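== Sequence, structure tokens ==
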Amino acid sequence: MISIQLSNLTLVLGARRIFENLGWEVQHDQKLGLVGPNGAGKSSLLKLITGEYSAEPGGSVTRARGVTIGYMPQNVFDSAGVGWISTLSPAYDDQAPVGQTEFQTPFAIAMGGAPRYTELQTELEQVEASLGDPDVYGHERRLGRALHAQQRLLDEYLALGGDSFPQRVTEMLLGLGLAAHEHHKPLEALSGGQKKLAVLARLLLAQPDVLLLDEPDNHLDLPGKVYLERLIRAYPGAVVIISHDRYLLDAAVTHIAEIEDGRMSTFSGSYSEYMLDKESRLLRQEELFRVQQRQVRHMEEAIKRFSIWAKVFDIEKFAARARNMQKRLDKMDKIERPTLERRRMELRLGGWRGSNKVLELRGVTRSFDGRVLFSGLDQVIWHGERVGLIGPNGSGKSALLRLVLGDEQPDTGEIILGPSVKIGYYAQEHETLDFNSTLLEAVRQQAELSESRAVAFLLRYLFTYQQITQKIGDLSGGERSRLQLALLVLSGANFLLLDEPTNNLDIASAEVLEQALEDFVGTALIISHDRYFLDRTVDRLLAFEQGSLQAYPGGYSDYLEHTGG
């Protein structure tokens, strides 16, 4: 059964045509990964489905009768602190924006996923109170109606989970990575990622027929991603998820929908299967294109030859043959030449040899807000290593990077950097960037480059001439990530501290970063929840476990094998 059908959709934003005459459908039980390069129109497509964007005349978005849709955008809370859970049916009207007030907590927001639950509690209390009324228990017909109403309400209450429903809410928040002590904090005391987890839990508990999730995993730790994958696989309706996490797309989805060059293609299977299928299809298309081009050349040569003969010898038969062949050529279904290699950013992390012992931790302890994050850390990182740093949210990963950077000091212990070590830092939230500067100013401040050389440098990172003079604050998350990587190159660092570098990168750019790290003459310490990325880049993992660091050889899959998952 089709839940959503898109027909002849054309979307124009400003002067840019995002896609044209696009068609697509979402089946009622599909789990779809929506992929494509940044700017291809993935988020815009979800906004068309929700009605936030309007298509050009002639296009349509058709939803099956009674279908409910839940939508979580990338940025759940705007600058005014309002989060949107867009819904398209009266049953969910009371879920429209979630305002950020001191009275709201993650638990309260998540509970709002089933507003009927609170209503049922109130109605049951009212019925139970009426049973103690002499006018009811002393009147057979009234008593019968009250008992019947009580049973109906109890059945509905139990269907939602009964008294265990609040525990289910708690378990979901915990599963997504929100610590128990954060469930009842006011929203203003939480980070953007923590707020996003609360809204994600609310949507999952609401269980609309179709879930539209735009990068819901960006702020999930590794256990949270595994939990989300399990929820998506078991979800009773359709799920459309935009994600750059290739591991998640392999584990959770049944189909891949790709937007590229303004067209939509759907593949059955996981992301890895889609990539193999796409590569084979492109190679077949390239071969068919070459065969057809040979046919076209032969026909064009024959048309030219017959035309010349007809003119030289004045023979109508040759002219007729030329006209007939031209008609056949004009009617031929032309095979489009596939793009086998698309332009990617040119990332080359230089680095240099430096000290053999890059970083040493000696008995390092750090507390925060009265809680010990970690204690007694003893580790050494050597030149040339690619070390992944993993652990649940709040375990102290970013805090450890701040200690290495010297922005904070340990409570006890020492952090020793090699004498020939120069650090380059990639910040998860892009806080190292000056949002009021232009891209050109940022590059020229980082390195002594002429304006023309700075422009040429930025063009290699897929920025347009127009963007180069824009404020950094006007860039998207992916564009800020590419700029940070460009500035890392200019820093000449030989020890990279990378905090979630792939969070906002599209898959193609993440692959470029993977190759650049492989070629890097230096050392890297990388915080990442991107399991695919960890498998392809690191040769050792440091995992925070109960306040200490445990070392595991290899990438994430090797870590799973060591720990048993």
Q: What stands out?
A: Residues 78-102 have pLDDT under 50 and may be disordered.
